[in-house]
Design brief:
By secondary structure, the protein is α+β, with helices and mostly antiparallel strands. Helix content is about 30%, strand content about 15%. It folds into 2 domains: about 35 residues; about 260 residues, L,D-transpeptidase catalytic domain-like (Beta Barrel). Strand 6 and strand 7 form a beta hairpin.
Length: about 325
């Protein structure tokens, strides 16, 4: 073997390695794009870490509403109205609306996120913990919504890195603009520094009024939305974040029984049941085809009908 042959062999091997590396990077980009906002959010920068800023006008609003600056907060999102609200605990222990921010962009339509690649922004009740904050986001500032939660996982729903972030582009996330996100992030960060362990995020398709539900009558998501309305009503009635649990593959709010529930198992005796479609609770063994029209509920089915519909529409695309 000559030196020329040896050099040619090494060159060929280097080209093969480069080709494999390029294909791996391309595949990683595709997977990241299907998963949500991960490709645009978790891209660490070398610049100084940002922390968000609560503006003077908002601090004055806190004082007018009898709120401590470090008091706990709660976030409510409404897709149809393109609004994100920050509620804050006052000195009586109740929560009141502090500020509302316009959502610049969310992807998908009204309805929950069901599967990776559907580009839907999530709907439901989620918890934000300190480790879900990302001050190094390439979309200025961001925090993870916590999707999928126990309810989502009980129905086999998939996806990751679904964020609330700055900028005005979205792949399954809520984009707030840098200006709005600077204060939203600052309010969340200050609540954590004040001792709040988790911030409840309530994401809705629209304001959960009877009129809005009636205007969307017949939508496949109606049973799910009526379940979300029960949680919204529980918050507005008490002016405090409801305790959220999952059993029998459905949300239950302020359950009468303490402890952790199995999201896929029947609810413990004593848990107040919320009938999701105003109909008798069907057995989970009853198939969707055997259930009477307009009485079946998403929460009691062993398979997620919304996921099935989306899978059919995406077949051959992903």
């Amino acid at each position: 073997m000559t030196c020329l042959d040896d050099r040619a062999g090494k060159t060929l091997r280097l080209r093969q390695i480069a080709s494999v590396f390029a294909k791996a990077c391309f595949l990683a980009l595709i997977v990241a794009g299907l998963g949500g906002c991960s490709s645009v959010v978790y891209a660490p920068k070398t610049a100084a870490v940002r922390t968000g800023t609560v503006r003077t006008s908002t601090l004055k609003q806190m004082e007018a509403l009898n709120m401590d600056r470090a008091a706990p907060i709660l976030i409510r999102i409404y897709k149809e109205e393109s609004a994100l609200e920050v509620w804050k605990q006052d000195r009586t222990g109740k929560f009141a609306l502090l500020n509302s921010y316009p959502i610049c962009k969310f992807s998908g339509n009204l309805g929950p996120k069901v599967m990776q690649g559907d580009h839907q922004a999530p709907e439901g009740f989620y918890d934000i913990a300190p480790d879900q904050l990302n001050p190094n986001s390439s979309e200025y500032l961001a925090f993870n919504t916590g999707f999928p939660n126990a309810f989502d996982r009980s129905l086999g729903r998939t996806g990751s890195f679904l964020m609330v972030h700055g900028g005005c582009r979205s792949v399954g996330c809520y984009a707030m603009t840098d200006y709005a996100m600077e204060e939203i992030y600052g309010l969340v960060d200050e609540a954590f520094k004040g001792g709040q362990e988790k911030v409840q995020l309530q994401a809705f398709p629209f304001r959960m009024t009877a009129q809005n539900l009636a205007s969307h009558a017949g939508d496949l998501n109606m049973p799910f939305w009526e379940m979300l309305k029960a949680g919204s009503d529980a918050f507005l009635a008490t002016e405090r974040p409801p305790r959220v649990a999952v059993c029998d593959r459905r949300y239950v709010f302020n359950p009468g029984v303490a402890g952790d529930f199995d999201p896929s198992a029947p609810c413990p005796i004593g848990v107040d049941s919320t009938t999701v479609a105003g109909a008798p609770q069907p057995s989970r063994e009853i198939s969707a085809s055997a259930a009477p029209p307009n009485t079946a509920t998403i929460a009691y089915r062993t398979a997620d009908p919304i996921a099935q519909k989306i899978k059919e529409s995406l077949r051959g695309i992903y």
